[in-house]
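Sequence, please.
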């Protein structure tokens, strides 16, 4: 997490999980252990009615702008994005746009998106900054205890 927050660019990463039921608890524990901020977007949208009403117009750029306002910590861990991915399926290239934003993010906070495994994202090649890792399979991480 510290490496992610110290990157001058490419300050976001995607962690793909195969255990959707436990992803929220896992991400909350990771945030706790690393001193990061945590947000579940589904819960956040339920709490903020004005956001829920604008969900159809929320594109990737607006999502990243919204996330900047949630935390003043160096890293923000994000779950509960699957409903947004579903709404983006109607938008051309939305998933590719999301991946590009992850790869080119230079602002604060650094972001770790914990998402249910997605083969399209898993197969994507991040080539702009080959020195950084942008995609991690949860199976390749240490267990949180």
């Amino acid at each position: 997490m510290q490496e992610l927050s110290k990157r001058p660019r490419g300050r976001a990463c995607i962690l793909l999980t195969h255990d959707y039921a436990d992803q929220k608890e896992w991400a909350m524990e990771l945030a706790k252990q690393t001193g990061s901020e945590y947000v579940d977007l589904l819960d956040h949208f339920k709490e903020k009615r004005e956001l829920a009403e604008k969900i159809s117009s929320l594109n990737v750029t607006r999502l990243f702008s919204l996330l900047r306002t949630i935390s003043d910590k160096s890293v923000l861990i994000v779950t509960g994005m699957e409903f947004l991915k579903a709404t983006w399926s109607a938008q051309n290239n939305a998933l590719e746009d999301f991946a590009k934003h992850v790869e080119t993010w230079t602002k604060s906070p650094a972001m770790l998106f914990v998402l249910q495994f997605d083969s399209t994202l898993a197969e994507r090649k991040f080539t702009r900054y080959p020195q950084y890792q942008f995609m991690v399979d949860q199976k390749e991480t240490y267990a949180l205890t």
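Residues 89 and 95 are 8 Å apart (CA to CA).
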